[in-house]
Amino acid sequence: MDLFENIRESIRAIKSNLLRTVLTGLIISIGIMSLVGILTAVDGMKNSLNQTFSSLGANSFDIRKKYNSGRGNNGQGRTDKVYPDITYDQAVKYKELMEAKSQVSLSANISGATVVKSVTDKTNPNINVIAGDEFYLSGQNLNLERGRAFSNYELELGSNVAIIGKEISDKLFPKTDPINQYISFLGRRFKVVGELEKRGSSMGGSGGDRMILIPLETGRQIPQQGNGTLTYNIKTSISKPEELTYVMGEATGVMRNVRQDKLGQEESFEIRRSDSLIQSLNEITGYLKVGGFIIGFITLLGASVGLMNIMMVSVNERTREIGVRKALGATAMQIQQQFLIEAIVICILGGLVGIFLGILMGNGIASLIGDGGFIVPWIWVFVGLTICVLVGVLSGYYPAHRASRLDPIESLRYE
Fold first, then answer.
1. What is the DSSP letter of 79?
2. How far apart are CA 195 and CA 200, in angstroms?
3. Of 99, 103, 87, which Cα lies nearest the Cα of 269?
4. In Å, how far are 63, 130, 220 from 117, measured between CA atoms?
């Protein structure tokens, strides 16, 4: 009985016990599905978030007011330092000093939970209102679906004009062109001059789809709640990414001078480059992969125990068959090989089903985070198949070895 005959005999044995084979393969499928599914979901989420962060540009960095992680008293008798807001004059001065080497965009968050009304409808209170200058759209990689950007006249005088996101347009103007229509929010009436392209969901939100952009000067004229002041965000973009580190160093010195941070004193602002978000993401997804692999491995460990138990039952049921084969000249190695191949074939069949279900499950989970496209993680597919073979060998070895050691005379007497 050669290897191919053993394979054919294993397949015949599987067909003759189809229900048991299906149940055994299902155990393996669940284990492989959990392993491949979790790792596919991590890869899918990473791909989606990478696309989101990459759209912010790898040749830019942001300057914002520094915030403390704690609030108020830190529990040790000291109070966290409160850093001053970045004022309009400071932001403008920085822009003037850096504009020869880079493109500087200024913006301010006006409101994060705004209700926007049209003549006939209104939105939920989840609209972000942002005031930006002439470089805001290009700095944030936002494109217009229709309409136009703000004119210099509107930017300088602070006109009541707005560029709205796709979700706002679909809600307030589902059947009409939003351009040149009027909307109301924050106690003012604005004329819509542009509509942003749809960006889709990212990290659970809707990005630019729920955003309204107004001129920076207009935002400065809107009364603020609470302390009544705005803090400005600065985005600096350069044409040569390889010079980013150098420009960031220069920007730090310029901003310290603008903010009048004393020598030896820490900065009262934060500088963060866009690709640092990707680096942080890679670290997080690395931990998620390790955790997912451990969970999948534990599930497969349980599946292998179940497979070994079922193979032991199979050996007991086929004791007389084993005796007949040995009586006809089959060696212990051939008997062992037959049961081992049977366990491996069952694992591979179950693994293929588990891989298919795991890819679907992983992409489904990843789609909840963002639209990163359907991915097939070929590395994890091959890893999953390799693990299936290993599980088949480990789970089938002891039952196969036990079958090969059976005495042919006692086996023929077995009822």
1. B
2. 14
3. 87
4. 33, 17, 21
List the alpha helices (DSSP H) in 162-260. 166-172, 216-221, 244-259
- Residues 36, 40: Cα–Cα separation, whole Å: 6
Q: How far is CA 379 from the centre of its chain?
A: 18
Q: Name every residue whose Cβ is closer than 8 Å to that of residue 267 and which is 6 or more positions away in sequence.
A: 66, 252, 255, 256, 259, 261
Q: What is the pLDDT of residues 362-383, one digit of tens each?
A: 888 777 766 656 777 788 778 7
CA 214 to chain centre: 30
Predicted model pTM? 0.55
Six-digit token string for 407:
């005495």
Contact 62, 271 (CB under 8 A): yes
Burial 270-296 (b: 16+ CB within 10 A, else e): ebebbbebbeebeeebeebbeebbeeb
Query: One-letter amino acid identity for 271?
Result: I
DSSP letter string, 24-40:
HHHHHHHHHHHHHHHHH
Q: Which of helix, strand or coil describes residue 374? A: coil
CB-based contacts of 308-313 (< 8 A; 24+ apart in sequence): 308/395, 308/396, 308/398, 308/399, 310/20, 310/23, 310/24, 311/339, 311/342, 311/343, 311/395, 311/396, 311/399, 311/400, 312/398, 312/399, 312/402
Across 47-77, b (16+ Cβ under 10 Å) vs e yields bbbbebbeebbebbbbbebbeeeeeeeeeee
pLDDT in tens, 178-203: 999 999 999 899 999 999 988 765 44
Closest residue by Cα to residue 50 from 374, 227, 275, 341 = 275
| Residue corresponding to tokens 């542009």 | 194
Tokens 């049961």 sit on residue: 339
Q: What tokens does 310 get? A: 């079922």
